[in-house]
């Protein structure tokens, strides 16, 4: 685990009959929808796999860039909301307390994956996710809805973060969606993107080009980060398996392979929320 502000310093054996083992493995498969990653997939690949063939219903928010929820078509090209005051507030002790509620959609094991993602922010930032109380006016409600998605920044009231039981319950995926809720967009939409990534729109699925629109992001003085957990992979939204993004000037640079937050992700989080002051 990376630290930005400071450095931190017998198996019991059971005998089962073949039938019992069969029932046990079936139970574990049903109860364990996350963390067991069968392939060497990055967070961006996991998100695309989970969200690629979803059908959006009338009562669900529209998604842009794969997993960012927006309330209306009008906000597709909006500036980052952190410039308009959608950050979560800091308390007098210097911590940012964000209430959350995990619905009963999840098994105990699945809740532990989510909780581990929530608690990971404590080790490298002033962000403190805490269980919600009846007196809280604003909170994150973590549900298993249709795919993996989140709104960007604090919106007020009950704010849904969707982590579908099928495909979304991985540590890095939880961190990715929480970073959206904290006010962060995808790396490839950064205002300085064109200095680091060339977008190949001719390879993008028709109708998905808006996923590569640049945003007037607040980059917190950090460099473009190919290793960010918010950077999508080389063939994201590809219609033909060919790259939709190529690094420049070196096209061979690896990117979009993160499985958890990078040093720069942590640095810009701490800068945005002034965690070291």
Account of the 3D structure:
Helix content is 21%, strand content 14%. The protein has five helices and nine strands; from the N terminus they run ααβββαββββαββα. The strands form three sheets. The protein has a five-stranded mixed beta sheet. Strands 1-2 form a two-stranded antiparallel ribbon. It has a two-stranded antiparallel ribbon with strand order 8-9. With 277 residues, the chain is of the alpha/beta class. Mean pLDDT is 81; it is low at 6-34 and 73-79. A hairpin with a 7-residue loop joins strand 6 and strand 7.
List descriptors.
277 residues, alpha/beta, two-stranded antiparallel sheet, 5 helices
Note the topology:
Blueprint: H1 18-31, H2 43-51, E1 62-64, E2 68-70, E3 96-102, H3 108-120, E4 127-131, E5 139-143, E6 148-150, E7 158-163, H4 171-182, E8 197-199, E9 245-247, H5 263-272
Parallel strand pairs: 3-4, 3-5, 5-7
Antiparallel strand pairs: 1-2, 6-7, 8-9
Helix pairs in contact: 3-4
Write down the secondary-structure element order: HHEEEHEEEEHEEH
Q: If helices are DSSP runs of H or I spanning 4 or more residues, what is the number of helices? A: 5
Shape annotation: globular
Beta content comes to: 5-15%
Report the uncertain regions. Answer: 6-34, 73-79
Radius of gyration: 19 Å
Distance N terminus to C terminus? 22 Å
Q: Characterize the largest beta sheet: strand count, sense, and whether it forms a barrel.
A: 5 strands, mixed
Strand order of the largest sheet: 4-3-5-7-6
Percentage of residues in helical conformation: 10-25%
Q: Which class of secondary structure composition applies to the elements?
A: alpha/beta
Q: Whole-number average pLDDT?
A: 81
Tell me the total number of β-strands: 9
